[in-house]
Model the fold of this input.
Amino acid sequence: MARHFTEDDETRALGADETVLAPSDEATVLLGAASPEDEATTLLGAAGAGPAGTSGLPSADEDTDARWEPMSDEEWAMTMAAPEPASDTGAAAAVDEWLEPSSTLLQPRAVGTVPSPGDTAPGPRVAVASPSTGEAGGAWEPEAAAGGAGPAGGGPSRRGREPREHGPRPARHGCLSFLLWLVMLGVLGMMALRMLPSELANGRLVPEVVSFVPWLFAPILVCLVLAALWRRRLLLVVTVAALATMAWWHRGFLLPGPSVSDAAALTAQTAADTSDNVARVMTLNTKNGDASAEEVVALVREKNVEVLCLQELSDEFLSELAAAGIYDVLPYYVISDAASEVSNGGRNGIWTMAPMSNVSGNLLPIETSSMPAGTIEIGGRAVRVVSVHPNSPVRGAQDLWDEGLSVIGSLSDYDHTYLVMGDFNSTWNHARFRELLGSGFVDAGEQAGEGFHMTYPSGALPSLIEIDHIVYARDSGIVVSELEAVEVSGTDHRALIGVLEVS
Done:
């Protein structure tokens, strides 16, 4: 026997305070509202969302047969006994995401009968958070009944949630801070090697490592910036101290120092003249004579060089220099005596534009490389020119390295205005080189305040260390500045050129 659905059946099945969506409304919930008004109606889920506060069910005046089909008693019983059909998971998740408290959209109210001002419905009430401040206050709403519906019938009202309590945040950049500390430990280790006394500074690999000390500015500055940004106070203190120490060590390279006058610099660029008080000087290691002799002579002509010191000369290279016209621009010269059995790459030589006197092919004995010397006159001052090349501090030759630097340093014991140029195989940061300078000599690179002039290696690799130097007697009335390092093909060194002025 067929039975029609009546209002009394609806009331008995669902209760007074619950509503059932029509099949068309259920599709709207799962698939999305057709319009913004439908979406708001669906999400807010008001029980009386129809016009004039109706429940949304067909009114008594409407034709219900058009929307509801008659059911048999068996179908009715099965419908009432069956569980509520599961809703679409994706749609439910989308609705739940839309209802998150962080959303700035309209917060839903609990589904159910909206309490009137005189409502005395039983059950606990919850405070509604203010949409603008998020703080509890304003109206009170009844909590969802046991098993009842929250927003859109889906659990307790989210508006009644307690604010989340966040625990302490984990330390940021912890791993990167550890790496920075490792970098700084390496930096401090290299700086410690630089501070070793000369007796301990010639150990295995120590001279090689110390040669790269100037490059420590880069990692120190990086660590300093990151320590400041990440507020690592101890690391910041360490990096500032390291940077201050490095700046103090290299202040001569960074701060303006004694330099030639503007007039002297201009004169050196104009022409070579032995009658004035200015001379352009140059030194180059030719790598056993592999350097291009033509480029060397061309550079002498271009830069108006008046004093040239070359190291690691071979007989073949000397012939190439002659063919390239070296004696046309620098007619006076001296070549050192042949090296001993412990050779350091051949002989050294000096070429000058001014006449040379008091010439020596072996000024002081260095076992691996003889030192030629000659005296020329610049601006009425007798200047003693020496070309040097001590042994490099390679494995097994540290003692020869020490010996060569010590012999060169002993020149300060003699009363001459020295101009010593060559491949010293040492940098300003080597204790042995600083001892060589002592109180009698000045390194032009460290004194002029013109930055670093890296001379080795040259060619395919970038120049990383400054081992070629122009050294002159302190307080002797001469000064050398306007330094530049110039690449020459065939050799692994750059030529170092400077302007000398006699006051």
